[in-house]
Design brief:
By secondary structure, the chain is mainly alpha-helical. Helices cover 63% and strands 2% of the residues. 38% of the residues are buried.
Length: 373
C-alpha cells in the first residue's frame, strides 16, 4: 500500500476510474436477458461502447508505462532490476486473474488460463520491456508492424481443418491456435476459442503501445492547448483510419482486429483529451472525485467486485416461489424487479453495484490506502 503522489496526472486517474467503473457496470447487470444494447458486447463484428472498455484499460496501461519509467530509463537505472520488478508485477496481475478463474472450485484441470487480468499482465510486461529496450521510433514501427502482420496472418493463412483464411467465429486462425495451445482451458462460453487468446494478444500489445506513444507526446514542451488540439486530431484520424480498415478487417473485439485497435485507440485519445483539458489544464476536478477514487484502486475493485459477484451466485436464498435462488437473484427480484421495467431494473442493479464499491473505495481513499500490485 502506498500514498497517492502529488504529481500524478489527474486526468489519467479519471480516465482509469471511468473505465473500471464502466467495466463493473457492464459485467454486473441484474439479468443478462434484459440489457440495453449499448451495454452489450457486439455479437461478433461491430463495436459498441461496451467494447471500448477493455482497450481503454490497455491504452491507459501504456500511458502509465511511459510516465512511470521514462526517468528511470533516462538516468540509466539497472534495466535488469527494472525488468525483474515489471515481471513480478505482471506475474501478480496474471495470478490474481487466474485465482478469479479458479475460485471457488480450484479445478486446475479445466481452469480458464486466459482472461482480462491475464491479458493485462502479459501485455503490460511485453509493452514495458519494449519501452525500456527500444527508442520511440522503434515503438512507432512496432505498433503498426504488429497490426499489419496480424492482419496479413488472419487474412492470408489458410486455417488447418477449415482450408481457407477467414474471420468467422471459431473457424479463424486465432481460434485454431487457441485450440492447439489452450485445449480444455478456454472460456466456458465458447470452449473452442478464447476472446483473450494467444494470437489476438499480439494486436493488444499495439493498443498498449498506442498509449505509450501518447505518454511520449505528453512529455513534450508544447503548450497545453496545442497538445489537446493534436490529441483530438490524432484521435479523429485514428477513428477514420480504423473505420476504413474495417472494410477489409472488420471491427471485432473477439479477434482484437487491427481495425478495432486503431478505432478504439482513436476514441481513447479523444476521451483522454477531454479529461486532460478539463482536469489538468483547466483545473476542474471536483466533479471527477468518484472517478479519481475508482482510478486509484482500479485492480483492487476489479478483482474484489469479480469475487463478490461469484460469492453472491454461490449463496442460496429461498425465493418468492419457495425455490432456492442466488442472493443476487433474490435482491434483484425482491427490491428492483417489482418496481421497475425489467431493463431499468437490470440497469439499476448494475448501478447499485458500482455505487456499493464506490462506498468501499471512498473509505480506502479517506484513509489514504491505495493498494498497488
Amino acid at each position: 500500500m502506498e500514498k497517492q503522489s502529488s504529481t500524478r496526472l489527474v486526468s489519467l486517474d479519471i480516465f482509469r476510474g471511468i473505465t473500471i467503473a464502466g467495466m463493473i457496470l457492464v459485467n454486473n447487470p441484474g439479468s443478462w436477458g434484459t440489457i440495453y444494447p449499448p451495454l452489450k458486447h457486439a455479437e461478433w463484428h461491430g463495436c459498441t461502447p461496451t467494447d471500448w472498455i477493455f482497450p481503454f484499460f490497455l491504452f491507459i496501461v501504456g500511458v502509465a508505462i511511459t510516465l512511470s519509467l521514462t526517468k528511470r530509463k533516462e538516468r540509466g537505472d539497472d534495466q535488469n532490476k527494472l525488468i525483474l520488478n515489471i515481471f513480478r508485477r505482471a506475474g501478480t496481475i496474471f495470478l490474481v486473474g487466474l485465482f478469479l478463474s479458479l475460485f471457488p472450485s480450484f479445478n486446475f484441470t479445466e481452469v480458464r488460463i486466459p482472461g482480462v487480468l491475464q491479458r493485462i499482465g502479459v501485455v503490460y510486461f511485453i509493452t514495458a520491456v519494449i519501452f525500456l529496450k527500444t527508442s520511440m521510433k522503434t515503438q512507432i514501427w512496432l505498433t503498426g508492424g504488429f497490426l499489419v502482420v496480424y492482419w496479413l496472418m488472419m487474412a492470408l493463412i489458410p486455417v488447418p481443418g477449415v482450408g481457407y483464411a477467414n474471420f468467422e467465429v471459431g473457424k479463424n486462425l486465432a481460434a485454431w491456435l487457441d485450440s492447439q495451445l489452450l485445449a480444455g482451458h478456454m472460456w466456458k462460453a465458447t470452449k473452442t476459442w478464447d476472446p483473450e487468446g494467444v494470437l489476438s494478444t499480439v494486436p493488444a500489445i499495439s493498443t498498449a503501445l498506442s498509449g505509450v506513444l501518447l505518454g511520449h507526446f505528453l512529455r513534450t514542451k508544447l503548450p497545453d492547448a496545442e497538445k489537446v488540439a493534436w490529441i483530438f486530431s490524432a484521435g479523429a484520424f485514428a477513428i477514420f483510419a480504423g473505420s476504413v480498415w474495417s472494410i477489409f478487417f472488420p471491427l471485432n473485439k473477439g479477434l482484437w482486429s487491427s481495425s478495432y485497435v486503431v478505432y478504439t485507440s482513436g476514441i481513447a485519445l479523444i476521451f483522454f483529451a477531454f479529461c486532460y483539458w478539463i482536469a489538468d489544464v483547466q483545473g476542474y476536478k471536483k466533479w471527477a472525485k468518484p472517478f479519481i477514487i475508482y482510478g486509484l484502486n482500479a485492480i483492487t475493485v476489479f478483482a474484489g467486485s469479480g469475487l463478490m459477484a461469484k460469492i453472491m451466485g454461490m449463496i442460496k436464498i429461498a425465493g418468492p416461489d419457495g425455490k432456492d435462488i442466488s442472493s443476487k437473484e433474490y435482491l434483484y427480484q425482491t427490491f428492483l424487479l417489482p418496481y421497475l421495467d425489467p431493463y431499468n431494473a437490470s440497469l439499476a442493479f448494475a448501478l447499485l453495484f458500482v455505487l456499493f464499491w464506490l462506498s468501499i473505495l471512498w473509505v480506502l481513499y479517506r484513509y489514504k490506502i491505495f493498494i498497488k500490485i
